[in-house]
Amino acid sequence: MKITAVTTRGIRLPIPLPPYSTEGAGTKREWYRLGRITGARPEPVLEYVLVYIHTDQGITGVGEAATDIGFFGEPIEEVQSAIDHHLGPRLVGEDPFQRERIMGLIDFRGNNCAKSGIDIALHDLVGKALSVPAGTLLGGISKERIAVCLEVAGGTPEGMAKFAKECVDKNVYSFKAKIGGVVEEDVERLVAVREAVGPKVSLRADANQGYSVKEAIRLCRLAAHASVDLDLLEQPVAAWDIDGMAQVRSSVDTLIEADESAYSIHDVMQIVRRQAADVINIKIAKAGGMVASKKIAAVAEAAGLQVVFGTAYGLGPKIAAKLQLASTVAGAPDAVEFTELVLHDSLTTVPQNRSMALPLAGDGCLEVPTGPGLGVQLDEDALARFAIG
Asked: Which of 100, 131, 162 is the last residue of a domain?
């Protein structure tokens, strides 16, 4: 089998602010900061690039690349251009079964989102060719169902609590509250969310690099004193401040998670050497693919660190890829972040989309697809409505 072409398709989905932003949050200023509103995109949207790898045997693998100016620094125009004109042509004539070789051909600095879309498409393609789930190619699926965690956007304590409670009523039992502002006010937000969801629901917090070292330490101590019972605090200080994060970690009992500090296996090795985190946040787009994500998970496991699979948004292929990946990693926490479930449809066909939407089943989980490859089928009519160009 040989690869004959690699093509892409841009998708733009409008995002209503209320489903994601709680009361007092989600202003246009914040969306500008996140890069999702520009002069060319006056309304909030999320954009994705679907990646199609075609072969001489008629089997096509479908992947998905995230795009985000605010976090990844890769707008849709850059991701699509990189795949169409630079990365994709390097794959033509290659054997798709040689995934390590193929990813090595495009293993240069940058374009991680684009590379992740190719990697996901390769796993879908090879899985289809062998009639096995993509997770089998990553070592085997050990879990049939994965618990869902949702982000709670920053806002008033009442607004954040209201959103979380509404999601509990839809069988969501794990949350990550967005904080990183004034410490005392953030503690009020966390207390409100905890009181709304009850003591048995998992609660994480994400500072998004918002604190100084002393502020992060104070936040953890105040939250503990208020019995918030945080599972972890994500990226409390600037991504470059590994030593500062290590100081936070050594000063508090709360588990500290690295996200923006942990893009590659080399980043994670630096975090391990400097004892700067207890948990590593893995995102397929950030790592550059599922293979790279598994390598990061292996480094973390070797160092005795936990991993979390974080929000990077996605349609059906990306959701399925995260489910497949998470099901293969030993020791990964039960809840995987799928905030996209409250933002837009997965654009998959029935019955798949029934398992990729709220409300969830009573156990708060998504089912790991068992079909060949990623195990999902995109809804072509829906894609046509949201395609760019």
From this structure: 131
| pTM for the model | 0.93
Please state, in angstroms and as integers, the Cα–Cα distance from residue 122 to each residue in 2, 129, 297, 356, 369, following that order.
12, 10, 20, 22, 17
Backbone torsions φ then ψ of 334, nearest 5 degrees: -60, -40
- Report if residue 379 sits inside a domain: no
* Length of the chain counted residue by residue: 389
Range of the domain at 54: 3-131
Please report, rounded to a whole number, the percentage of residues in the chain having pLDDT higher than 90. 81
pLDDT tens digits for range 21-58: 555 554 444 544 444 555 566 577 889 999 999 999 99
Which residues contact residue 351 at a Cβ distance below 8 angstroms, ignoring those fewer than 6 apart? none
d(CA 205, CA 221): 14
Distance in angstroms (rounded) separating the CA atoms of residues 328 and 140 = 6
Question: Does residue 73 belong to any structural domain of this protein?
Answer: yes
Query: Residue 136 domain-assigned?
Result: no
**Residue 119 pLDDT level (bands cut at 50, 70, 90):** very high
What is the spatial distance between Cα 248 and Cα 250, in angstroms, rounded to a whole number?
6
User: Which domain CATH number covers 361?
Assistant: 3.20.20.120
The pLDDT-based confidence of 103 (bands split at 50, 70, 90) is very high
Query: What one-character-per-residue DSSP string does 179-239 give?
Result: --S-HHHHHHHHHHHHHHH-TTSEEEEE-TT---HHHHHHHHHHHHHTT---S-EE--S-T
**Does 25 share its domain with 160?**
no
Radius of gyration of the chain (CA): 20
Between CA 148 and CA 363 the distance in angstroms is 10
Strands 45-55 and 256-258: unpaired
Q: Domain check: are 195 and 278 in the same one?
A: yes
Q: Is 387 inside any structural domain?
A: no
125 and 149 co-located in one domain: no
Both 160 and 110 in a single domain? no
Domain CATH code at residue 72:
3.30.390.10
Residues paired with residue 50 on neighbouring β-strands, in sequence order: 9, 64
